[in-house]
Amino acid sequence: MAEEKKGLNFIEQIIEEDLQNTHKREELKFRFPPEPNGYLHIGHASSICLNFGLGEKYNAPVNLRFDDTNPIKEEQEYVDAIKEDVLWLGFKWEKECYASDYFQQLYDWAVEMIKNGDAYVDSQTSEEIALQKGTPTEPGKESPYRKRSVEENLELFEQMKNGETPERGHVLRAKIDMESPNMLMRDPVMYRCLHKNHHRTKDNWKIYPMYDWAHGESDFIESISHSFCTLEFLPHRELYNWFIEKVSKEGELKPKQREFARRNLSHTVVSKRKLMQLVEKGVVKSWDDPRMPTISGLRRRGYTPNAIRKFADSIGVGKRENMIDVAHLEFCAREDLNKTAPRVMGVLDPVKLVITNYDESKEEWLEAENNPEDESAGSRELPFSRELYIEKEDFKESANRKFFRLTLGKEVRLKNAYIIKGEDVVKDAEGNITEIHCTYDPKSRSGSGTEESMRKVKGTLHWVSAKHALETEVRLYDRLFSVENPDGDKEKDFMEFVNPDSLKVINAYVEPSLKTAGIQDKFQFQRIGYFCVDKESKEGQPIFNRTVGLRDSWAKKK
């Protein structure tokens, strides 16, 4: 059956219409414009996939441009992390650009706007300016400095640039319309005085452009054809166009801003400010803590680029904000890892299993398939001996018919090995089971072709050989917040909803082949879930992060 052709989303429809009416295909050019004031999160991943995906679809260049106009919050660390994230997702940019590359051009244009009567220096405080702007239903009032002469404005703006004006002393405002129904058009601030060191321009500048002034002009300088941003920038579009009209000439390509809705993710927050709080207050260890919704956190947890791109593609782009269940992101991870992750055996909550009729001095190596989804993955050998570890929850002394695991008097199969039968238990003084004794059928080895090996039993257990097992640290990560929308209760701080069980650290036993596992190697622990080797591992001592379980455990809780 032929694959169903996917329809165009509304962004692609805009581009197709423009190609028919206003644009040439060779004029198409896109950009991804992050601010380097934190690490990128899953919401940014959707934007990355949108912009770079359009570049791939239309064979058009895509710039990576850093909106580095606020030296107070921006750092080179964030620049480096953002570049790593974009590359890891599998995208390459045409040019690496910075708003700071254009500081001189932006300044020169601002001077021209002053000369043309389109901008003025305002000496009011930020509080006075805010009050003077009015409300959505009441017009604003003109600044008492709005009628300053061109000469005085140029002189003051020069003083601002040279650092002769104290911080908060003056601002440069565009002269538009204080009665505009769009409050963003009521003489917006273009520049503020900041005597702060910039991570790229050092102390060369004492004034810094505001986002609305720098962003659209940067798009124009780079000949961006379509500037896609999230829905909160819809009211900014009028100002975006007004600024570009002031610096462009007839016939020049003008960027086109269009907006799409954010996709919020359940059981998390994606505000950089709130993510910063989680780090600073020690709720998580770092920006790349595997519980964080940052791309680096998801990477460290074991998510693959393909899973995240699949997630972004499946939720699409829309015109309305909505909440995406994190279970869908987890599903995308499972679906991808199921195809690629080698199967191994690990026991997270062990109890000893002794096969009483197995020779104490004997050990054998059994063949195990690496990945039933991938024939080319081959097989490996597993050590088998008299004493094994199995999961505590896989045994009950007595159980009903619906319990398909090991119990006294009942048979189950050990994965890739033999059929065993529960015979007895050993308990400590508190009544806890310390050993399970069983017998095995020597002719029932998996794959041996004997009649006994073909015998059907209802349960199959995973296991590791006790004397060969590698003891290792396993970090069981879960959702960072216990409620779907931690931002949803305006009466409570989102921190109140932090899930106290978002991380459990345990010691477990895994098969010895994992001793050589490398950082970021991914595995399916059979019957348990998907795990990834953490970067804090040492040679021969892997630490495993749980990426996702085999099933959605939260569905049961609901």
UniProtKB/TrEMBL annotation:
Amino-acid positions noted as binding L-glutamine in the UniProt annotation, renumbered to this chain: 67, 211
Swiss-Prot/TrEMBL keywords: Aminoacyl-tRNA synthetase, ATP-binding, Cytoplasm, Ligase, Nucleotide-binding, Protein biosynthesis
Residue ranges constituting the Glutamyl/glutaminyl-tRNA synthetase class Ib catalytic domain according to the UniProt record: 28-338
Region (Disordered) location: 127-147
Domain of life: Bacteria
Residue stretches making up the tRNA synthetases class I (E and Q) anti-codon binding domain: 460-534
UniProt KW Protein transport keyword: no
Residues covered by the Glutamyl/glutaminyl-tRNA synthetase class Ib anti-codon binding domain: 341-441
Motif 'HIGH' region location, chain numbering: 34-44
Major location category of this protein: cytoplasm
InterPro entries in alphabetical order: aa-tRNA-synth_I_CS, Gln-tRNA-synth, Gln/Glu-tRNA_Ligase, Gln_tRNA_ligase_bac, Glu/Gln-tRNA-synth, Glu/Gln-tRNA-synth_Ib_cat-dom, Glu/Gln-tRNA-synth_Ib_codon-bd, Rbsml_bL25/Gln-tRNA_synth_N
Enzyme class: ligase
Pfam families registered for this protein in UniProt: tRNA-synt_1c (PF00749), tRNA-synt_1c_C (PF03950), tRNA-synt_1c_C2 (PF20974)
GO terms for MF: ligase activity
Record EC number: 6.1.1.18
This protein's record includes keyword Ribosomal protein: no
UniProt catalytic activity: tRNA(Gln) + L-glutamine + ATP = L-glutaminyl-tRNA(Gln) + AMP + diphosphate
Residue numbers binding ATP: 35-37, 230, 270-272
Subcellular location: Cytoplasm
Recorded family membership: Belongs to the class-I aminoacyl-tRNA synthetase family.
Quaternary context: Monomer.
Protein name as it appears in the record: Glutamine--tRNA ligase
Organism, scientific name: Salegentibacter maritimus
